[in-house]
Every structure is written in C-alpha cells, then in structure tokens.
Amino acid sequence: MSTTVTTQTATPVRRRRLGSTELVYLALLGVVIIGAVLVGIRGDNLLSTANTVDMLTRSSLLGFVALGQTFVILCRSLDLSVGYVMALSSLIGATTMAGDAARIPLGIAVVVLVAGAIGLANGLIITLLKVNPFITTLGMGLIIKGYLDTQYKGPAGEVPSVFQQFGYSRIGPVPLSAAVMLIAVVAGILYLRKTRTGYHMYAVGGSDDVARLSGIRTGRVMIISHVLCSIAAGVAGLLIAARFGTGSALVYDSGYELDSIAAVVLGGTFLMGGRGGVAGTLAGVLILAELDTIFNILQVDPFFKDVLRGVVIIAAVAIYARRYHDRQATRVRFRGNGGGGERRGRDPGAPPDSADDESVPAGHGGGR
Amino acid sequence: MTQTPAPQRQGGNRAAGLLAALFGGGSATVFALLVVIFAVIAVVNPGFMEPPSLMAFIKNAAPLVILAVGQYFVIVAGELDLSVGSLVGAQVVIAAALIDGEESRTVPVMLLMLAFGIVVGLVNGLITTLLKVHSLITTLGMMLVLYGAIRLWTGGSPTGALSEGFRQAGRGGIEMSVVRLLPWALFILVAVVIAAVVLMRSPYGRTLIAAGDNEKAAAFSGVRVWQVRTAAFVLSSVLASLAGVLIGGYAGVTAQVGDGLEFTAITAVVLGGVVLGGGRGTVVAAMAGALTVEALFTLFNQLSLPSTIRPAVQGVIIIAAVAYAARERSRPAVPATDARPDETTGS
Known about the structure:
By secondary structure, chain A is an all-alpha fold. Chain A has helices spanning 2-17, 20-41, 49-74, 82-97, 104-127, 133-151, 161-168, 176-194, 196-206, 208-213, 218-244, 256-266, 278-297, 302-328, 337-346, 362-365, and strands at 170-171, 174-175.
C-alpha cells in the first residue's frame, strides 16, 4: 500500500508540471517546427496555406475514426471493424442518396442507423456473449467484408454535388470536413467531461469490477462506446463518399483500424483503458497527418514513410511509458487497485496525465 | 490458476491429464468443431480422407500451425505479436534475394534468416518488456517497419529466386506407396509439435503461463518476467521464420505472401480456447485451432463456396465458437472468488 500512497502524493505535483495532453501538443509543435525547418531548407514553406490545407484534409478522415476509437479504447475495448464499417457506409450512403440532393438527409440517417446497429451488435456480443473485443470486431469485420465482396463488385451509388461540398469546400484555410471533425472532437471532449456516461467510460476502462460495484451498468457503457465508435466510422465513410463522389468498397484495405489505434495511443490514451481523452487523440491524428505532409513535400520514399511511422509510434509510446514508470519507481509493476480507481473516480474529467502501457499486470490487463 | 492445464501435472494419470488437456478450459469447442468440419468434408468429398489428400492438407496447414504455436507462446504470456505476417513476407523476400537461385547459398542464408528472426523477436520483446510499450503497439510498429523496409530494399517487387534445396522443405517429401508423398513439412510439423509440448511441460513453460496469469505473483516467486516474455517473442519470430521457409517453398516469392497471417494465427489460437491476456489454454488446443481454420478453408473449397462470401462465414464461425467457449468456461471452472477483471470485460 505504501506505493499507492507515494504515488498519490507525488502525482499532483508532477501533474501540474506537464500533463500528457500538453506533452502530446508539445510533440505536435516539435514536429511542426522540425518539419518547417527541413521543408524550409528545401526552399518551401510548411505553413503555407496549401500545405496546411493538405495537412487538415489528411487529418479529417482519420480524425473521425480515431475519435470513435478513443471511446472504445477508454473502455478497455478496441474496434478492428472500423475500416469495413467505413467502406459499407460509403456504399450505403452513396446508393441511398442516388444523386438526388433531396435524399441527402435520408442517406445520412440510413448510414447512422446501419453503423449504429453494427456497433450495437459488437457491444452486445462483447458484453452478453463475453467474446473478446479483438475477436468480436475482427469477426465482424470479416462478416462485413464478405457482404461487401458479394454485394458490390465495384463503386456504386452517386453522391449529389451538394453533398460533395462536404469533401471539397473550405472555410478560409480550413476544409469543411476538418471543421466538422473539429466540432465532433469538441463534442467528444464535452461528452467525456460533462456527461455521466462519459465519466462512466473512464471508470469502466479503469476497472470494470470497481465500476460495477459502484453501481455503474458497465455493459451499457461498453455498448454505447461501441455504438459511438461505429457511427464515427460511418461518418468517415460518408466523407469518403463525398470525396470520391461514389461509394467504394476498397477503403477497407487502407488499414484505418490499426492507424486509428496508433493515433489514439499516440495521443496519450492508455491502451488498457481508463486514461486519456479525445483532445490527445486530435493531437495524435494531427501529428500523423503532419508527418505525412512533411514526407510528401520532402518526397520521401513511400516505403520509408512506413518505416518512419513505425519507429515514431513505438518511440512516442515508449516515452509516455518512461514518464509513467519513473514516477512509479518500483521493480514489480504495481498499481494500487483501490488507489487507481479512486483517483479516476474523483477526477475523470481531467484525464490523468501519462499515457502509457503495461502498468497493469497483464494477468488483469491483457484483455485483448 | 484454478484451471490447471494438463502440462502442469507430472506423472500420475497421464490419460486423465490428456483428457483434461483436450477438454478443459474451453478447448473442447475446438476439438468438437474440428471433428464436425472433418465429418462434413468426408461426407461432401469421401476422396479427401484418402492418405494422399490428407498429406496435401497437412502440407498446406503446416505453416499456420507453426505460426499458431509461436503466437501461443506470446499470447499465453499475456502479449500479442502482430509482426509475424510481415516477418514471413520479409523472410521469403530476403531468402529469394540472397540465395538468387544458387544451391550453395541455401544453408548460410537459412542461418542468416534464423539470426534475423531472433533479432526481430529480441527487439519486439525488449521494447515491450524494458521500455514497457504495449505489445500491440510494439509489434504493430515492427509490422510497419518490416513492411516498409523490405519494399524499400527491393524497390517494390522482390528480386532473385529460391534454390531447389530451399523449396524442398515446403513442397518436397519422401516418395512412398500408400501416401504417394510423405511431405517434409509433416516431419517439421511433428518436430515443432513435440518440441512445443515438451517446452510447455518444462520449467520455462510453466513460468511462461505463470507470468501470463499473474505477473505480480510470478515476479514475487522469483520469475524474471521480462526475460521469460522476451524469450516468448523470440520463439514466435523464429517459428514465423520457419513458417516463412515453408510458405516460400510452397507458394513462391511475393512480398504479400504473409499479409494478414498475423490475424489468422491469433484467430487460430483464440479458437483453441487460449485466453487473450494470458495464463490459460494449452499449446495442443492452439494447434487444433490452426487445423480447424485450415479445415474450414478446405471445406469452403469442397463446397465450392463463392470466394466473396467466405470471410463472412469465417467471421460468424469464429465469433460463435469463441462465444460458445466463453460460455463453457464461465460456467463450471471459475468460482465466484476468482472473478477477474478480464473475465468481465469479455476475454
């Protein structure tokens, strides 16, 4: 127990110094500065309008997916089906709209309903049938893939030009899609900090048992997080339809599920649940998008980009882990169960700093 | 710790131990499923049960079974390895580029591949244990690095060719009368199976399960958890390299050859009743899981199911089997006092 006490007294002091969200935004700033210098040497300007627009455009698609992924990861779950949900949503959206501007609301409604139903199915299988989230969402992805491959031989549907504005138009330097994404992120932050269910997500992710014993309907929280995640992926699918002007099944090969998990973790959310937040995820998404933009301007070999991204993700998470474990400073990795739960219970709105991994003994934590 | 897998029992009633190994801890589902799938295949196509086609099936299934064994070591220790798919691809491309069709280079290149596998496993393990990065992220990063590095090195498309000696492991065998061809892959597979079962009965195997079940308790009992886990990652990478040799010999040289194998291997292991999060499940059941997945693919072929619908059927079967196993597991074996958090979050 003594470790718990020291942790608790030490935490507030350090937290005031630098929270994890601040750290992630500092990292983003660092990436922008280093990138601007590198690009500047080549005689270009990273912060020019064109390059900023490019960066924001890249970020909006992953932003929606990662926003949803944040909710499920906070609940100590994860969603590997988002890529397939995106592909399905783009097709359903485009075929429902069928090029008729009057049918846009209908298309959006159908997509939200279908995506929500998929999330509901994921959540129910995880909570009621007690299937591991990894397997549930992997299986769900395969089911959707089977449906898509059977049903759609190629691009289908047509998006009315009004709706294509969602993909192309800009407000000043900010693309409309990025603006909508930012609004969704702000809504996500408010949801996690101001609503009861948002609070409960931290509690469920921190310790499902403690949360249930405290009177939280943990299953319901888990289901809601999965529904929100799938709907967010559905909105990303609509954005794809708006950009392409039609629905496309091939999006599921783009690896959005793993990218979004990487962005969430890069943003300082704890992969084992209970810590982190949407603000950090936004920074994670922006870092990945900014890196892509910089690599593009510098004309880095696309394969080298993958290598760099892999290294950046591992290095960033290692740094978060370092900060967290320095503070713990114990050989065996303890985290006082009661202490941890209490701390989160009191202050879930301000996500505890440090985002890292493996502080929970895997016997308890390796829920995937 | 309530379910003691059979390998932990010494001597005594071996038959009872074997039965417990086969039917304990949610593993019964996979054996039942395996029997059902084989029965359906036998009904649809009686010719499949002839020795030659069974041998061909084993030759096909060997790489996945070997990958599943490697993934089992990592999963039972409480981690995950997503890098095996791209490692298989990397090893095949490396072999083709370095051997370049020359028979004399076969053995040195194989040794180099072994060394490369060990290095990848060490890096995965040390980053996960010492830098405390979650293994999902570590191995995801490794997957990206290997994927990019191999394509960077070869400029997008693999070069060179494998030697005939190299390909023998994956496609060759001993000519015989009854089975026509006794594949080398069968011998390799049997060796891996025996080694894996012996390893899980050895002190290392028990330590591995203990570390996956309760890391804290294991550490207090004097286990160097980081060493045990790092060794598991090395085992996984080495076995992935072996699978790469078989796949390269069997399927030929493309960089995409390993794509998606990591998820198939994880699926196979979980189908075998091994709990993600560590500490539960037997290596025999994991191998049965791999055989079940391969049998399922064979069944799809026999039924000539349209290839587009196959993923959907596969997804339904995986979810249903794991749900059924989870129901079985939560019923008799786990007393209320042992309600662990990961049980409730749906492991």
